[in-house]
Amino acid sequence: MQEPTQDHLIGTTVDGRYTVRSRLARGGMSTVYLATDLRLERDVAVKVLHPNLANDPTFLQRLSREAKAAASLSHPHIVGVLDQGEDGHIAYLVMEYVKGHTLRDVMTEQGALPPRLALALIDPVIEGLAAAHGSGLIHRDIKPENVLIADDGRIKVADFGLARAVSANTSTGALIGTVAYLAPELVLGQAADARSDIYSAGIMLYEMLTGKQPYAGDSPIQVAYQHVNSVVGRPSDVAPGLADDLDELVQWCTATDAENRPVDGTALLTELRHIRTTLTDEQLDHRQSPAPTPHSPAYAPESAPVGSPAGNPTEALATTASPTEFISQQRNPTTIMAAAGSGLQRSTQDPTDHDLNQPGKRELKRIERQQAKDRARAAATPVRQLREGNPRRRGIIWAVVIVILALLAATAGWFFGMGPGSPGTIPDVKNKTVAEAQQLLRTAGFQSEPRDVFDDDILPGYAVGTEPRSGAEVRKFQSVTVFVSKGAQLFPLPTLTGGTLAEAKTALNAAQMALGNVTEAFDDKVPAGVVISQDPATGKEVRHGTPVALVVSKGPQPIPVPDVRGLAKDAAIKALQDVGLKAVVAPDKVFDKLPDNGVVSQSPANGTLVKGDTVTLTLSKGPKMVKVPNFVGKNADAAEKELKSLGFEVLRKQDVVILNLVLVQNPVNIEVPEGSPITLTVV
Length: 683
Hints:
CATH topology of the largest domain: Transferase(Phosphotransferase), domain 1
Number of domains: 6
Shape: elongated
Distance between the termini: 99 Å
Strand content: 15-25%
Number of strands: 31
Strand order of the largest sheet: 1-2-3-4-6-5
Number of helices: 20
CATH superfamily of the largest domain: Transferase(Phosphotransferase) domain 1
Helix content: 25-40%
Structural class: alpha+beta
Radius of gyration: 45 Å
Low-confidence stretches: 165-176, 290-367, 372-389
Mean pLDDT: 80
Largest sheet: 6 strands, antiparallel
CATH class of the largest domain: Mainly Alpha
């Protein structure tokens, strides 16, 4: 939702490149704007940090490092970081613009989601986290507001690296995060790792399944206290009818002790997808009977900053009553928690009942049940035979057993010490030919299988890497996959001709291609603004990011109207046709001094037309013939006046005027063309 309030940045251009068009959202650390990248002519999201962060040079250096790390992530479920910089007092991040809505909007509108939808929505979030964790990046602020859902259904996680940069910038090592989803170790001032993101994702899944957050309070510190000292309950306690596997999944993710959670996003993604395949349709489509209720935050401050988005903006926690505060990592965590006024010290009591719901405890419980069954079966089996047999025979049998066991032990020692079961280190085979890569692996004691993959950087036929990756220590009997480059993956270019330039840009963005040079050309058949041609052509297979040059029509070329007045009819028509115009002859001719069929006038007489336009010609039917009266012997002035009224041109010849009479007139008493000169000799 765009902000209605006036913003001084709207309409300005940041760093000479990003023209700010509107404000999208405002949070505790920054304001997000919709902007146009003038260089690449595309929409982007520009996150402008608040002045208290932008004015710290140390923070700007740290932000640059974090932005570079986040920009290295290229994953379909992670919002890409495109640029970072400073423009005067403005520090900004430029990110991919995802037009759509957030997961918070879905949860606010629908309340508790059916498990099928909840698992489908969180799956790409966990997949994005898995990719980030694999690259060594931690998000630290997972929440529904940071999960973006595009209009075409794509789901992306936003704001990687920003929370880490901001929290590292505070003078006391304060922690930045949204209190409703904050992992206990972060509240206690401990280091964040991948399991901190897992905790936040587990809280988010709890809220998606139940329509409520597990902890609520009047202030952030009360919610933080519950994260540290309580165990997240089962979602089915709030939303009866949910499958036990969903309860166990949520409690595994939200274990208070990070050691009891999935180690990273990859581990969680595997279990999540396993659960999705094992639940029945009835369990997946289970819906709560109460009507959806609007989201209620974990705590309710008296007021929120103007323009802040609904839900839970990213905040910093503290021990005061302010809704946006800091929890210092340099203070004793017990002192911090005690400041809430109700003995806020981390409990040391073993929450036995709840721990049984954690995946590790659940497995122990299952094993105990199996052991009880085994003991019951053993109790029903005789432990002594009716006839004990020959003691000597038993001695031989035991000797054979011992020898066999010794041989097995020796074989196992060889197998795991020097044989195929011994550990080895996977060599680096990148940029090697397939034969060279397999030879390196054989030398290291491994068997390998090639697998073709696309790669933008490695030449076709050369190794991209291995699975397990190079440097990993594994048993030699394990098969190693060698990934062999098939070259860059190529994609067909969309058809851009026939549409407007704006439509072409949209199509290029959707196909993940770049806009190349745009030139304009006149075209008599294609309207102005429509794409005439593209290079490379439609359907040609190219890499993502390939620039596509466009030629855009300027419409028909304007033609200056030639002046054909005074020309004969045929000559005038040909002159117009030669420049691409059509001649139309007016039906009525007019008297003129021009000869018959001479062009007296044209419409239009000047300006420009386009090819095929018409010019109307008015033709002469020759001069009008007028009989010249005889003015010899008459007053010269009266004669001149009368001749001019008849349309003649009067020429007077006179030396000394005495009588002012016409002595000689030429011509006289004959018909001549109107406008002809009449000579009067005056005495």
